[in-house]
Amino acid sequence: MTLRRLTFDDLEDCSRLAEDRNWGAERHKWRLLFEVGEPYGIEAPDGDGLAATNVLTPYGDDHAVISMVLTASRYARRGLGRQLMNHVLERADGRAVSLYATEHGRPLYEEFGFRVAGMTATRTGVFHGEPSGRTRPATPADLEAILALDAEVFGTDRSPVLRRMSGFGEGVRIADGGYAHRWDNDGTTAIGPVVARDERTARDLIGDLALDAGRKIRIDLDLDREDLTRWTEEHGLTRAFTCAHMVWHGDLPGDRSRQFLPFMLALG
């Protein structure tokens, strides 16, 4: 089976593979990952698309994220996921690597030496509330300040991803000491990243973006943020599923206290 770097010509096969494993097609998300990361795949021996995929997204010289670890159901338990993991961990070139793992995928990552750094619950629903009056839409003039704040809080440079927010997403809002972004994921508005100086500011940003969306939203919230979790429940969001945030060859970078939501699980 041929392992190779994927190209934009493979996007439709990636979406088909995701649907085969009961994920959404998420074509919009796949395209962003192809733009900012290193997508890899193994060609299906029967000639029908891809047998397995994953994506490595490096951030600077010290951190990288692995995502979209998928194997076609007809090729399950043949070691393809392990083969691709070996490849991208070598490509990580000494960086600390993180990923979000389902209970199904977690045993594989533990075999490679990944450890659990935290637990995250995906929450969905239609948000109910009132505008905070303390945030505003970002303008192009705000971008450099957003990038500087994010580098300080995230702990490494993810500007290639953040510079795409205006084209990829549906809106960016800023507040004193924070910013947040929302984007469309197959008809649901996902919110992330959210970087803020404190929980009050994070609530203002999340709430205002959710109200702007006016439809079902999704957030990926660490379980240890109990007060923020209760607030989301009070405003209409319920838990959909839980996954483990795992790290290999180091620690998660940055100031986790000010990282309220990831960009998406696939990007950290």
Automatic annotation (TrEMBL):
Q: Which UniProt keywords apply?
A: Acyltransferase, Transferase
SUPFAM superfamilies assigned: Acyl-CoA N-acyltransferases (Nat)
GO MF entries = acyltransferase activity
Enzymatic class? transferase
EC nos: 2.3.1.-
* N-acetyltransferase domain mapped to chain residues: 1-137
The family database entries (InterPro entries) matched by this protein are listed as:
Acyl/Acetyltrans_Enzymes (IPR052729), Acyl_CoA_acyltransferase (IPR016181), GNAT_dom (IPR000182), YitH/HolE_GNAT (IPR041496)
The entry's protein name is GNAT family N-acetyltransferase
Taxonomically, what lineage is the organism? Bacteria, Bacillati, Actinomycetota, Actinomycetes, Streptosporangiales
